[in-house]
Design brief:
29% helix; 7 strands; 5-stranded mixed sheet; alpha/beta; two-stranded antiparallel ribbon; Rossmann fold; globular
């Protein structure tokens, strides 16, 4: 069992335009030095993520998603996986990673390995071609998503202004 209560995974392909945004946010979070948190970066998230879920209370995934009507490039959404009734990518043909994050989460749930809380930060982009540069819209949103995750994690841990809230002690 790991000592950290939280594992954050920044996903993406650094050579495929906007797909790199999950890695960029993960790199920024490493510099934040969040307490009780393990941060991983991966270009090939798959079933091996299940081992990274072991013993954590909160599992956070950060990844790019194709822009769709209502979610233009540079927009983002936090998804509480356990309370989400929409559709995530379910086909490995739709994922640049080979095995989709949705398939991994579904398998972890079936195996009883899914942590009590799972959050997904989906950042919408438009350029996913090999060799493409990230769009200005996805680059511009990295600080905002980083700050949101930092806020959400510290709130989850019960920390305000750098101090543990007394009602969460003991």
């Amino acid at each position: 069992m790991r000592n950290n209560r939280i594992t954050i995974v920044g996903c993406g392909r650094t050579d495929s335009g906007d797909d790199a945004v999950g890695i960029r946010v993960g790199e920024a979070l490493v510099r934040c030095a969040l307490p009780d948190t393990r941060i991983l970066l991966t270009e090939w998230p798959g079933v091996d993520l299940i081992a990274d879920m072991e013993g954590v209370e909160l599992f956070v995934l950060i990844d790019a998603a194709r822009a769709v009507p209502g979610h233009p490039p540079g927009s983002w959404e936090k998804i509480d996986y356990r309370n989400f009734s929409g559709t995530l990518l379910t086909s490995h043909h739709e994922s640049s990673h080979g095995w989709s994050i949705a398939e991994t989460l579904e398998l972890a749930d079936r195996l009883g390995e899914l942590p009590p809380r799972v959050w997904i930060y989906a950042i919408f982009g438009a350029r996913f071609e090999f060799g493409a540069q990230p769009s200005e819209a996805t680059i511009a949103v990295v600080p905002e998503v980083t700050a949101a995750i930092q806020h959400d994690v510290t709130q989850f841990l019960g920390i305000e202004n750098g101090k543990l809230k007394m009602e969460n002690v003991g």
